[in-house]
Amino acid sequence: MNIIVTDDYEKMSRAAADVISTLVSEKPDCVLGLATGSTPIGLYAELVKDCAAGKISFADVDTYNLDEYRGLPGDHVQSYRYFMNDNLFDHVDIDKARTHVPDGACADAEAACTAYEEAIDAAGGVDLQLLGLGHNGHIGFNEPCEEFPKTTHCVQLTESTINANSRLFDSIDEVPREAYTMGIGTIMKAREILVVANGEGKADIVKRAFFGPVTPEVPASVLQFHPNVTVIVDAEAGSKLDL
Ligand code: GLP
Question: What is the pLDDT of residues 182-232, one digit of tens each?
Fold first, then answer.
């Protein structure tokens, strides 16, 4: 596991964008696994700049997002499809037909999950999976539980996640209670993993996830077993690490 602590959020974003830009330059038809949340907004802005400057092109890239709220259609302002369009896809030369987010509007949860897992496999698997970190150690929407979930599935969100994400909704009652997410097995199949975290609120979980015991109670801890992981955190999120 390669752990990089940068001075601030801007440098974290640039360092993480460099990892993705390098892959896209070296393998223009790569498959990227993407994430939402506040953390990657800066790195997406850097990728938009790289594309505008002609350093990279997303024309042949396929993307698969980690997760989506169940019940929100893609044009809902809080859906993760909307977030991805707004922060990245609308501003780069990507073919939207090659961008994938679990279908939050699909009424048949099992069908939505199976179709998503099959589509990732058919694309040849994910070359690089980007991950943020929930305060409780969740990755995607894989919440703390008794065993690591393998494949894309429908989850009940925990109160902690509903509270954390309610800041983006008009009221907590509007936060969906369920979501679709890649499983831990889906995430672990990615050939390379890039984790980003910033702010002092993430300092404890960064330490627990990457230096504590591997347990499904801290879903991100499983990444300690992945052979190719880069973790990039700002100084605040890295403040409890003894490197
Ligand atoms: C959300 C998402 C995660 C994300 C996490 C952290 O619940 N499902 O994929 O990584 O929260 O979000 P943030 O970056 O806003 O702290």
Answer: 999 999 999 999 999 999 999 999 999 999 999 999 999 999 999 999 999
Is the whole model's pTM more than 0.70, yes or no? yes
Tell me how far the alpha carbon of residue 140 lies from the centroid of ligand 1, in angstroms.
Answer: 7
3-state secondary structure of 104: coil
- What are the pLDDT digits (tens) for 40-76? 999 999 999 999 999 999 999 999 999 999 999 999 9
Name the residue of 65, 138, 153 to mutate for ligand 1: max ligand atoms within 8 A of Cβ: 138
153: Cα separation from own chain's centroid: 16
By the 8 A CB rule, do 80 and 182 touch? no
Closest ligand 1 atom to Cα of 38: 15
* Residue 135 alpha carbon to ligand 1 centre in Å: 8
Q: State the Cα torsion 160-163-169-175 to the nearest 10°.
A: 60
- Which residues, listed in sequence order, are joined to residue 151 by a DSSP beta bridge? none
Residue 225 token pair: 């077993």
Residue 94 and residue 64 in contact, taking contact as beta carbons nearer than 8 Å = no
